[in-house]
Amino acid sequence: MLRSVRTAVAPLSALLLTLAALPAHAQGATRQTVVGEGQRISATLSPGIRVGNQLWASGQLGTSPSDTTIAGQTQRSLENLEKVFKAAGTTLAAGATKCTVFLTDVKDFQGMNAVYSKFFPSNPPARSTVVVAALVVPNARVEIECQGIVP
């Protein structure tokens, strides 16, 4: 009797382990648009998308007519990302797993990095930094996008 129970349970256990390993979208999780405070959806993009516990935040610019410095633009970009993560139910520091930083000038790396490190005082996410010819808004010096999880 015990052997027949083990024989019947083994395939079920394997199936449950396989299902648990599937990405959230493959498990039938609903795709949700995430909009941070003061942000809006446009015809071509959403500030964030959440599927299950996974979050993708669109690139955020930090442009401001009053502050054109790399420090100011980085601060604003990360604050905009924080709004998306907060709307999804977490924080940038707790939830971000991978960020990509786009700079228009490699000389801005140290200034960006000084502000960026304040948002991730410990256990920073994985990151790529890429220098590009231009961003979509004139005078934009930095754009940052992040992926993460919502606990």
Number of domains: 1
Q: Please work out how many helical segments DSSP would assign.
A: 4
Radius of gyration: 20 Å
Structural class: alpha+beta
Number of strands: 6
Biggest pleated sheet:
6 strands, mixed
CATH architectural name: 2-Layer Sandwich
In round numbers, the mean pLDDT is 88
Would you identify the regions where 5 or more consecutive residues have pLDDT less than 50?
15-19
CATH superfamily annotation: RutC-like
Strand residue content: 25-35%
The helicity comes to 25-40%
Q: What general form does the structure show? A: globular
CATH topology: 60s Ribosomal Protein L30, Chain: A
The side-by-side strand order for the widest beta sheet comes to 1-2-3-6-4-5
Structure description:
- Helix 4 (109-119) links the parallel strand 4 and strand 5 (126-131).
- This protein has 151 residues and is α+β, with helices and mostly antiparallel strands.
- The chain has one domain (29-149): RutC-like (60s Ribosomal Protein L30, Chain: A, 2-Layer Sandwich), CATH 3.30.1330.40.
- A six-stranded mixed β-sheet has the order 1-2-3-6-4-5.
- It has helices at residues 2-21, 70-88, 92-95, 109-119, and strands at residues 31-34, 48-51, 54-61, 96-103, 126-131, 142-149.
- The model is unreliable at 15-19 (pLDDT under 50).
- The radius of gyration is 20 Å and the shape is globular.
- Helices cover 36% and strands 25% of the residues.
- The longest helix has 20 residues, at 2-21.
- It contains four helices and six strands, in the order H-E-E-E-H-H-E-H-E-E.
- The termini are far apart.
- Helix 2 (70-88) runs parallel beside helix 4 (109-119).
